[in-house]
Write a structure and sequence with these properties.
With about 180 residues, the protein is mainly α. It has 8 helices and no strands. It has helices at about 20-45, 45-60, 75-95, 105-115, 120-135, 135-150, 155-160, 165-180. The chain is globular. The N and C termini lie far apart (about 40 Å).
Amino acid sequence: MGRLHPVATGCAIRCARLCTEPGLSAVLAADKGLLHWRAMNRLGDPGLAEHAVQETLLRAWRACASYDPERGSVRTWLLTIERNVLIDTARARAARPGDTQWDEIGEHAENRCAGPDFTDNLTDGMLVAGLLAQLPAPQRDAVEQVILRDRAYRDVAAEMGIPVGTVKTRVHYALRSLRRLPVSA
């Protein structure tokens, strides 16, 4: 009971717990918003962003038994998977920019002529800036570098002159604090 799919041998020891309903629910509650936000910022299209999140979760679910807790948290693992999904999506779009069905050509042309909604981007940016302003400066800097600029922990640590573990801790506590804030903050 509670299993979504049969688990590979050894999954009970080294598992992201995405193969269980409670584990998947916990990941969705904690990380789906962050995954969608990153995908939307990178792709600029709500449909593609949702597809990227679903693909990320599907790949993570399939690779649940390969998760290694010694290499990082489940969130870090998911963000790495999502980064690969976003790269794959961008490459596919670049390789086939006009690859649409005939019935989608009108919609595709409309979307190409219409620029991104300036007000949505401005509102999102103001919301994120307001939330980040509530964090202590070291945590805010770490989140901006690792999450918003999608930089590797080790690169940020080298630039800041601190251990990698300190950067990870700052990001962890910052994200935990941000999850507890009201969205309208």
